[in-house]
Amino acid sequence: MNRPALRAARRPRLGDAALWLATGLATLLVLAVLVVILVDVIRHGTPRLTLGFLTQAPKDGMMAGGIFPAIFGTVALVLLMTLAALPAGVATAIYLHEYADPTALPTRLVRIAVNNLAGVPSIVFGLFGLGFFVQFAGGTIDKLFFGGEKFYGQPALVWAALTMAILTLPVVIVATEEALSAVPSDVRMASAALGATKFQTITRVVLPQAVPGILTGGILAVSRGAGEVAPLLFTGAAYFLPKLPHTLHDQFMQLGYHVYVLATQSPDVDATRPLLYATVLVLLALTFALNASAVFVRSRMRKRIASRA
Amino acid sequence: MTAPRQFAQESPLPVAASAIIAPSSPDVTELVHRPRRAARLRSRRPPLVERVVEKLIHILAYSAVAAIILIFIFIAKEAWPLLTSDEIHREVTLGKMWFIQQWPGYDAPEHVWQPVSEFPKYGVWPLLVGTLKVTLVSMLVAVPLAIAAAVFVSQYASQRVREIVKPAIEFLAGIPSVVLGFFALIVMASWFQDVFGFDSRLNAIVAGVALSFAVIPVIFTVCEEALGAVPRSYVEASVALGAARWQTITKVVLPAAAPGIAASIALGLGRAFGETMIVLMASGNAAILSWNPAESVRTLSATIAAELAEVVFGGPHYTVLFALAVLLFLITFGINFVGDFTITRMKRRMGVAS
User: Fold this and answer.
1) Does residue A147 contact residue B99 with C-beta atoms inside 8 Å?
2) Which positions in chain A touch B170 (Cβ < 8 Å)?
3) Is residue B147 part of a domain?
4) Cα-Cα-Cα-Cα dihedral of B63, B68, B72, B75, to 10°?
5) pTM for the whole thing?
6) Residues A77, A163: contact at Cβ < 8 Å?
7) B154 to chain A: closest CA residue
């Protein structure tokens, strides 16, 4: 019996088992983090989650009542944000993918900017929103149209939405570009061969096929925008407002910011805890629903492309 | 007789072909000799609306460039008086921020961050060390876990397992940072204190571990993509040489994907360095200059978030906070730039290799 050969044959299998086990455990641990957070939030959050909680305003110094103004503010914020981020993001992606020469300096510049914009810390966006939108843009509008009276030169819904739009711009660009590159080039050539201009090809052939991808980008941006808090700290979010925002220059409540306020500024932590958990549950449910629909739309798009190829 | 017959047999095709080409041949020569006129013949100029919209697309495409430049300009603008204004120099200078100072009432020179006091002190080292401490803890947790998970998913996992794990980690990435901060503050801090018996409930370890939950998906995603981009031929060659799966992974796949893995770590580092809400809620926010990770810390980003709301516009404190933001911006910009550069280079190399 040749023992060394046998050992040599066994050792790799042991090494494989060890590596499989180590990496598998790491994967499990990462998944466990997700599960633990979800279980904890759902277990403590559901008892307080009633219809009234979703439809009422906070009461008694935010120790009772609901979170309706925060939900309303979040929805208003992401809608306005999408109005700004989607056109700019889609246009950038179209330019990068359909028009630009990928090796030219301006194109590379745009790409570097997009990548780095995605990495700018969210608190820096907040300071930028304060310096550029609130003070510079808002101050200028007030000077020109309101005789210096403060309407837009203060933290407001519109400035928070625009700040958030810049933050989510890279998300839209990356998703749209992915969608555009999934459209086969044969289709573009066929369209051009029929005499369509480049613009006609893009608007009538390429874009309709890329809609699911653009939608994915939009949803992911909304999900990101609904959860970010740091950019709102100085651009428009408020602790507590008795009434809903009804103009663009009003302040607003927001779910994420509400979580931050309840968790850190409450005079009685134990009393607010059920409310806090329920608010976190709503915020998590919202972002998860958005992310899940983005994953769903994207996987359907990928399957359609795979089946066509 | 044979020669003409051959000619006759061969001739129909060339003759017919030339007959078909003939009517259009003037156009062909025109295409060659007068490209301008040919272009006009081929397609009319697109209508005005199209040209206007196309122009608009080109302009909008620079919105990201404009954004990043404006961000830097407007933050730097607010921080600028720190270098030029005499009024601010009476309270703080760049030197006083970076070099050790002897403060009234202190026995020895010290780095102190205490902007709201009789003698406002703006020593940035406690904040910088705090940021580094939290970032280090988060990277120590996130890097091994995320890379190992990426190896498992890309090398060992079946298609079905992959379809569960990848969306799950995307969901982890989708958890808002304020929720991670909440979880660290309300739940994790108590668990950690029970297990490790920390003196201060909120500290660099709690904040760092919570921060790693935000960093893991970043590293995992980029890393998994890098591992997946390693050409199949590398793996096949290794297996053909008799290497076991684990030998192929550790000696062939991982080295080949090394630039991508390095880039993923850089991007994760950028995220960790600039993250605000998690550290603001879970770090304890005490500006203590110490390397002990079990003590409360205050980071650059949390300092800005916590203090800017209460400062006088344009005052020394306000200016210093914007200067901290410039510092944060430049550091993360540098880290991300290196990360992206590495990814682009690796993609180009892999594209050639496969």
Assistant:
1) no
2) 291, 295
3) yes
4) 70
5) 0.85
6) no
7) A23
- Contact state of B60 with A87 under an 8 Å Cβ cutoff: yes
Domain span including residue A5: 1-48
Which has the closest alpha carbon to A301: A233, A216, A242?
A216
Whose CA is closest to A259, among A231, A237, A280, A240? Answer: A280
Q: Which residue in chain B is spatially nearest to A285 when comparing CA positions? A: B175
The three-state secondary structure class of B199 is: coil
Local structure of residue A100 (DSSP, 8 states):
S
Q: Return per-residue pLDDT of chain B as tens, 354 residues.
A: 344 444 444 444 444 444 444 444 444 444 444 445 444 445 567 788 888 888 899 888 888 899 999 999 999 999 998 888 888 888 888 878 888 888 777 888 888 888 888 788 888 899 999 999 999 999 999 999 999 999 999 999 999 999 899 989 988 998 999 999 999 999 999 999 999 888 888 999 999 999 999 999 999 999 999 998 888 899 999 999 988 888 999 999 999 999 889 989 999 999 999 899 999 999 888 888 888 888 889 999 999 999 998 888 888 899 999 999 999 999 999 998 888 888 778 777 766 444
* A96 vs B55: CA distance, rounded Å: 14
Contact B70 A132 (CB under 8 A): yes
- Domain hosting B39: range is 2-43
Distance in angstroms (rounded) separating the CA atoms of residues A64 and A274: 10
Q: Which residue among B64, B70, B274 places its CB closest to the CB of A173?
A: B64
Specify the pairing of strand B113-114 against strand B121-122.
antiparallel
Q: Which residue of A has its CA nearest to B343?
A: A115
* Residues B140, B258 share a domain: yes
Do A54 and A41 share a structural domain? no
Identify the CATH number of the domain in which residue B243 sits. Answer: 1.10.3720.10
Cβ neighbours for B212, distance < 8 A, ≥ 6 positions apart: B137, B138, B139, B141, B142, B145, B272
Of B299, B292, B308, give the one whose Cα is nearest residue B278: B299
Q: Which residues of B touch A91 (CB under 8 A)?
A: 56-57, 60-61, 63
Is A40 close to B43, i.e. CB distance below 8 A?
A: no
Cβ contacts of residue B138 below 8 Å, gap of 6+? B207, B208, B209, B211, B212, B215, B272
Residue B200 shares a structural domain with residue B318: yes
CB contact under 8 A, A131 and B78: yes
